[in-house]
Design brief:
Helix 3 packs antiparallel against helix 11, helix 3 crosses helix 18 and helix 11 packs parallel to helix 18. With 400 residues, the protein is mainly α. The chain has one domain: Sodium:dicarboxylate symporter (Proton glutamate symport protein, Orthogonal Bundle), CATH 1.10.3860.10. The protein is built from 18 helices and no strands. Bound molecules: aspartic acid (ASP).
């Protein structure tokens, strides 16, 4: 897509997002009638994810050549992801200790939502177990990307060891990957209308602007804390982009179609196809695009990590429980793991927060306090998740 074409599309996507907010705000529940249009866009994106991720990883690992090169790129990628996630959690802890959003909150009678109670696989061992699936088809059918990525990496590594016989296989996956990216460009043109509908319908579902504001007010300082933390972290990422990756605002503008889509869909997995296409257009090395971004969409969630830390401390403050430095250390480690374990789907972070709450012995009912505004904060943290991945691709491109 030409630069001019991309900018025009971006303008339409931003207009779509803004009109979506206005429409949902004023028309309230009526706006839910538009939901199908948003679902259409979302389904079109989701349709591409599995073939795209598998072909990208296989052709990406293939193009890296020998396993040592893969080890180097993989090593840098994991170091970048771990470091930035840790920074995000630190920022979360600092802002929540500074603003103290939970003090004096009216607890009411919070209850734990069903889908969180039903969620059993939230222990540490489960996160590790989720890396390998006994049934790839079942994982694909539920868009569980992590085991598919692990399989694709292992499969491609095996291919690199069988000599000439692998050439055709790599060529097939290269071709599939190119075709999938073409499809993504077509689907991207649905984004303005899709994002308009997704935002309008979700705000409509919340009862429109007035009702939404009333809900926000109840935990207003929590919202302010999380948004402040996310804003600070996005600037830190921008600094990393400038200093380490030697890129700047044009890169941010180039990635903006993916960022607004992340806001509209609240899902980094659904946004992944656009993230990859935008990074390609920004001249990021295809190897970094194909390998770093699918992995990032699944395990690198800076916004979620920051949110988990901030939300758990908010709950502690609301219950009047003082967490010691040691306990905050436990929050630090478990929030990082919980973010890695969270799937790139809407409100997944709320579910894995159980790990963090349990680790420091806080009441799970605390999650009930956050429910009403979680869908809203989810959009912001997903945008930062995708921004973290985008900066990651630029950093690895530079270091490769
Ligand atoms: N919705 C987020 C994502 O897809 C995950 C979360 O924090 O709930 O990146």
């Amino acid at each position: 897509m030409s630069h001019k074409h991309a900018l025009i599309l971006l303008a339409f996507i931003i207009i779509g997002a803004i009109t979506g907010v206005l429409y949902g705000w004023y028309f309230g529940t009526q706006a839910q009638q538009l939901a199908w249009l948003g679902t259409l866009f979302l389904n079109a994106l989701k349709m591409t994810i599995i073939p795209l991720v598998i072909s990208s990883i296989i052709s990406g690992v293939g193009s890296l050549g020998d396993i040592r090169h893969l080890g180097r790129v993989g090593g840098f990628t994991l170091i970048y992801y771990t470091l930035t996630t840790a920074i995000a959690v630190m920022v979360g802890l600092l802002v929540v200790n500074w603003i103290q959003p939970g003090s004096g909150i009216n607890l009411g009678d919070p209850s734990i939502p069903e889908h969180i109670l039903a969620k059993q696989d939230t222990g540490m061992a489960d996160i590790i177990l989720s890396l390998i699936s006994p049934n790839l088809v079942a994982s694909a059918s539920q868009t569980q990307l992590l085991p598919l990525i692990v399989f694709a990496i292992l499969f491609a590594m095996a291919l690199t060891t069988i000599g000439k016989k692998s050439n055709t296989v790599f060529a097939v996956f290269d071709g599939i990957n190119e075709a999938m990216m073409k499809l993504v460009i077509w689907i991207m043109h649905l984004a303005p209308i899709g994002i308009f509908a997704l935002i309008a319908a979700r705000l409509g579902n919340a009862g429109g602007g007035e009702q939404f504001m009333a809900e926000i007010k109840a935990v207003g300082m929590h919202v302010v804390t999380v948004l402040t933390g996310l804003a600070i972290h996005s600037l830190i990422l921008l600094l990393i982009l400038v200093i380490v990756a030697k890129q700047g605002i044009p890169y941010l503008v180039g990635m903006a179609r993916a960022l607004v889509t992340a806001f509209g869909t609240a899902s980094s997995s659904a946004t992944l196809p656009l993230t990859m296409e935008c990074a390609r257009e920004n001249n990021i090395d295809p190897k970094a695009v194909k390998f770093v971004l699918p992995l990032g969409a699944t395990i690198n969630m800076d916004g979620t990590a920051l949110y988990e830390a901030a939300a758990v401390l908010f709950i502690a403050q609301a219950y009047g429980i003082d967490l010691t430095m040691g306990q905050q250390g436990i929050v630090f480690v478990t929030a990082t793991l919980a973010a890695i374990g969270a799937a790139g789907i809407p409100e997944a972070g709320l579910v894995t927060m159980v790990i963090v709450l349990t680790a420091v012995g806080l009441p799970l009912e605390g999650i009930g306090l956050l429910l009403a505004v979680d869908w809203f904060l989810d959009r912001f943290r997903t945008t930062i998740n995708v921004w973290g991945d985008s900066v990651g691709a630029a950093v690895i491109h530079r270091l490769m």
